[in-house]
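Changelog note: in this version the structure field was regenerated for every chain. One regenerated record is shown below for reference.
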Amino acid sequence: MDLEIKMPDLATTGSEIKVLQWLVEVGQPIQRGQHLLEVETDKAASEVESVATGVLKAVHVQQGDEVPSGSVIATFEVKESPRKEPTLNISSAAEKQPASSPAEVNRKVIKTTGATGKRKGMFSKNRRSGPALLGEPQATELSSIQKTVGQRLLISKQTIPHFYLQTSANAEPMMAVRSSESHSKILWEAFFVRAASLALKKFERMGRRLEGDRLVSAGTDAVGVAIDIENELFVVSIVDASSKSLGQISDEISMEAKKIQTGDSGARKLQPSCMTVSNLGAWNVESFCAIVNPPEASILAIGKILQTVVVKEDQPSIQNRVSLTLSVDHRIVSGKYAAKFLSELVHNIEK
């Protein structure tokens, strides 16, 4: 009997699903669980698995086609009816290559296509756009997420009048907390998320966004954490961080990042935040200026903790300090207001 296969609902934001390539040919026998095709949405690129065993009789979509979920994409010839209505499964990297510990989630890399062409993870990266000559650099196509992020940040730099405030904070209190055995696995980002959340309660204008000629509430008190997974940028939003412990915040960041890494469509959706923190200190970056993520009013860039000579009561001493740069939308707040907010944030870090 013939069995129609439909494009599954991949939890996109309403955009159509792009067919990258079929991995099987018409007339080829197919086993349940075998990869059929690669698709790409605005959230991720992934492989689709068969839930039935049979022969691929016909394909109704071709490479490059963009189709909505629910469309018939192929016909199988099967010997008997499946026990339940067929759907297509997204291959999960969680079963193949889970993170080894929460603290490593943000830095763990999912392996992708090797020299054999066999996939080792969920996401398809560095696809060749065509055959390359020997010694010729291979062209790579941006993923939907990379395109979306690039467009948003381009608009941000072109339309938002950024200004930047730079300072540093005493990192000794944070280091003392992390040195204790019970808090050794707390992510550095948790300290800055909680400090920012507390500061936002005192400086509510930092949580506003611009709509035309009006400032309106962001509608959330969440502080976002920028994370990079496979060269794709995501933001994990932590709601009501001021009322949570450092351990709770750290666990929540790790859990959400792991969901993104293993392809959870819900976790990969853009979640609203009123500001974002971005930490590159672990990669030996002393300081940097981040781009505001619209419609947020600011983003905090966190650099490396460095030993610095400080003078207190005319006496020099060595102190571990962390570099902070606050990028701000000048249409929403003034320099003085943002400076007061940054000072409060530093105070929360140091206490």
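Spot check on this record: The longest strand covers residues 298-312. The chain has two domains: 2-91, 145-350.
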